[in-house]
# Entry
Amino acid sequence: MTDDLFRADAYLRACEARILRIDEAGIVLDRTVFYPLGGGQAGDAGVLALADGREVVIADTRKAKNEEGQPTNEFVHVPAPDQAELLAALEPGDTVTARLDWERRHRLMRFHTASHLLCHLVPVPVNGCSITPDYARIDFHMTDPLDKETLTAGLARLVGAAHPLTVGAITDEELDANPALVKSMSVQPPRGTGTVRTIRIGGTGEGEAQIDFQPCGGTHVANTSEIGAVVVTKIEKKSANSRRVVLGWASAAA
# Structure
């Protein structure tokens, strides 16, 4: 099992960890700050720093799979190519420092939080999403047209309002009793512990409106003001019942 430290604190940039296993898929640690691909969000990249100062470059992070191909509670840190000699020197039990590519992760956190704001602006079910460091896309189950300028202005308003974000949890029973909380038609929130992690934007102070509340296992910023300037770069009609909204940064320096 890999202890997923990012669930409680998305701002942790590094941690000490012990190697549990090394195989052709990659390196499994007992704990990590690296988020594995899932829920539409890309897996993290970074390095595993060894005791002697050398570093294994990690290109991606994935959930391990069992013999039936089902995800397990272990995370695989996938090394970048051409590191065979360095990888051969690693053994189970070795201690490493797992260090994120923080700039990349922070962009993922900002885009993921912006996608929740879009769910407020377009209050219909979501039937697909992809969160990357360079863009985010959300597919909405709808037939009505959407307007780029209107959505961009709405995002700017919500970002500028500096709404706080709160990580919480509800029980499986509470979620079963309120199925409308799950806005995604294609991705179900992580279960298995009896509780489900939730993300709430706004609604924490007296008289403050709640912007969004839904189960989500991804990483997010603590306040919408941290998102910065995002814009809707494209709206596509993917099918008769689907409209795709693509988000990008307002400038290359974002």
